[in-house]
Amino acid sequence: MDFSCDGHESALLDCRHEDYYDHHCHEGNTVGVVCGDIEMADCDGGGTRTDISGPLYFRRGSKPQEMECKWTIGDEDNPIGDNLIISMNYNGDDCGPHVNIWDSSSGEHFYSDDLCEYRKFALIERSSTQVDITVETHRHDEDIPLNGYYAIVNGNIESAPLVGGWDVSAINVTKECFHIQWSKLTLSEIDQPIRVYVLVVTFTKHHQLQVIGRIVPSNTSSTWICGLSPYRKCQVKVVAVDESAQLHKSSETFVTTEQDVPSRAPYFERHEIDEAGCLQVKWEPISEDDRNGEILWYTITYVAACFDGQAIGHEGNVTVDGASDNATVCDLRPGLKYRIGLSGTTSEGTGPIDHRDVYASCGGERTLTEINGTIQSPNKPCSYGGKQNCLWSITPDTISPTKWIWVWFIDFRLRYDHDSSNCRRNDWVGISTVDSGSETLLCRYLEQVTVLIQSSHVNIGFNAWAHGEGDGFSASYQAVQNDITSMYDDDKTCLAG
């Protein structure tokens, strides 16, 4: 129900309002009216915590106002330590509640996060005597609790003294998790009972050092850490907090999560056809954060493709060592369009494939000696593209001397720049004879056109500038031994030679 109040009403129902089930409010504008004390959420009442350590629990309630919880940790007027360690652990599939932490003394807002991925095991350390924590969620369907813990200590984790002979070990390792165990410290090893243990896990992600972990009660000697990436090398240690808020540190161990397939494809840096007609490929290797294992090899696949990447037959692949970042592919058929793919493989399989399109070159000069024949643009009947410089040398092998060569073009549609009518700035077909020393150029879109060349040897060239794709052309030729000039005196016939 929507209410619109001016401020002079004596009762809520005096305000303008719609029917009971009609409203236009989104959740951030809703309010609730309840009788008695308001419970913000199920969070053990929130409030101030001044013990050396304790749990922090949050679960959203069923009412709109039950979406957040607030705690104050420590007492700056009567501090028992100079450092605070806080862990926030969330086990949902999606991101968790939003956590904000302020330093009470300075007012600095030093932590803000939604507890996603590995940060679902957030471990925050702050040199302070008091902090304020707010946890809130706006999801209606969120019924997974946030389990946190805090410890007020003297000194910091890095400078904690090492307890000789106190080791930690991994007893179960998966692609995203590992299970760490340790022996409980006794009074024979330190002179105070233990309040909590702090599991500290450090690793590098996106070239930055990340710290996650958990705080667990003193009766615990093992726990899980999850949300990690596959093949992630982690440094692990346990820190004990005793009854006097002093820290004691175990030795360190290294744990690497299991391998998986790469989560990202290698990135093409360069892919081009060289003068020999071979495809030169160079790539940026898969990053450490995305390879998820040791890259055993990279694979370059190629398949001849037509419209919309549809395969038209010729295909293959080249595999190179995982330490490589380049490869050469020479098994390409002249003029065809190829869809090339690039992927990396670990012991667990092949990851995503990055695709590019490339056009093979014409393949050099072709000599045609038949009395009649056909020529067509590269990749016909599909579109042509890429840098092309093709040449067909037509020298019919006839018994009697060839006087004329008759060439007729159909389906002539070449890519062109609308800002230029100069054929040489566009893709073009050039027709010349050995004796003439000049070319007749055809470009853009043409209806059916016939060219008669008075010569026994004709060169037909095709040039494309790699600025895009075009439909191309098809042409047929016929060697003629008779004088046929008078037979083709019309506006669709070019006389050359």
UniProtKB/TrEMBL annotation:
Residues 164-260, 262-365 form the Fibronectin type-III domain. GO terms for cellular component: membrane. It holds the Pfam family CUB. The keyword Disulfide bond applies. Disulfide bonds join 5-15. InterPro entries: CUB_dom, FN3_dom, FN3_sf, Ig-like_fold, Sperma_CUB_dom_sf, SRCR, SRCR-like_dom_sf. Residues 362-480 form the CUB domain. Residues 1-36 form the SRCR domain. This is Uncharacterized protein. It comes from Desmophyllum pertusum.
